[in-house]
Amino acid sequence: MPHEEPLPFWLVNVPRDLWPAGCPEFLKECNEKDRRIIGTPDDEYDLLTWDEVKELVRIDRVDKFHRVPSELRRYRHFTHRLVKEYGSIMRFMLDERLKWTSMEPRGRPFEYDSDVKILYNDWPYGLDPAIVHLVVWTKFELEDDPETGLSTPESRQEIEAYVQRTFGSKTKEFVWFKNWKSLKSVHAVEHFHVMLYKPDEEFVREITGGDVPMTEKFVAS
C-alpha cells in the first residue's frame, strides 16, 4: 500500500470540502505546543474527568489544561480577529465582556461586588461536560511572588475566602486556581478560574448575570 503522508496540522479536524489552500493566517504563528494540539484529531483527545481536574489543581499543574483541538483552532481564529478589530484582547475584554470604563477598584480586595465580575470562560478547556468553567475578573491586583510567579500565601487566603463565601454554600464540588504568569492569555486584567462540578444551573445563571461564553457566539468566516 502507498505510504500516506500525515495531514498538515492546519487541515486536521477540518471537513475536506472546507480545506483551505494554505495555512490560514491565524495559525501561521502558532507555537509548537499549539501546532501539536491542533494537529490532533478530536476523537483522539480525552476529556478530563472531575477527579483529574482536582488532581491537576492540587499539584499545581494547571499547564496540563488544554482545549479540545478544534476548539483551540477556533480560539486562535477568534483572538486573531479580535486583535485586528480591537487592537488587543484586553481592549475587547474591557469594552465587550467586562464593560468596565474604569479599572480603579472601589476598595480592598473582594470588599465590593462592583470590583468583581464572574463570567464563563469564553474558551474552556477539554473537560467533562458536567464541569462548568468560570473566570472571576477583578479590578484589584492579587499579589504574586515575583520569583515563582505563583500567588503569595496572603493572596491565596483572600481568594480562598472569597470562593468559599461565593460558591461554597451553593455548590458541593468546586476548585479554583490562578494561572501562572507565563500561562495567562490576558495579562492586564487580574483574574482566576473556578470550576464547578454539576452545579445548579439557576445558580450559575444568577452568578454570571446570564452570561453566554464567546465559543457559543463565534462564527468563523
Can you give a write-up of this model?
By secondary structure, the chain is an alpha+beta fold. It has helices at residues 32-38, 50-58, 69-86, 89-98, 153-167, 201-208, and strands at residues 116-120, 131-138, 174-177, 190-197. A 4-stranded antiparallel β-sheet has the order 1-2-4-3, with helices on both faces. The longest helix is centred in the middle third of the chain and has 18 residues, at 69-86. The relative contact order is 0.14.
Short description:
InterPro entries: DUF3605. With 221 residues, the protein is an alpha+beta fold. The protein has 6 helices and 4 strands, in the order H-H-H-H-E-E-H-E-E-H.
Going by helix content, strand content and strand pairing, the class is alpha+beta
For the biggest β-sheet, the strand order reads 1-2-4-3
Stretches where pLDDT is under 50 for at least 5 consecutive residues are none
The H/E string reads HHHHEEHEEH
- The strand count comes to 4
Strand content: 5-15%
Gyration radius, in Å: 19 Å
Q: How confident is the prediction overall: mean pLDDT?
A: 92
Number of helices: 6
Could you give a short account of the major beta sheet?
4 strands, antiparallel
Overall geometry: globular
Give the termini separation: 38 Å
> Helical proportion?
25-40%
Q: What would the keywords be for this entry?
A:
221 residues, alpha+beta, 4-stranded antiparallel sheet, 6 helices, globular, N-acetylglucosamine-induced protein 1, DUF3605
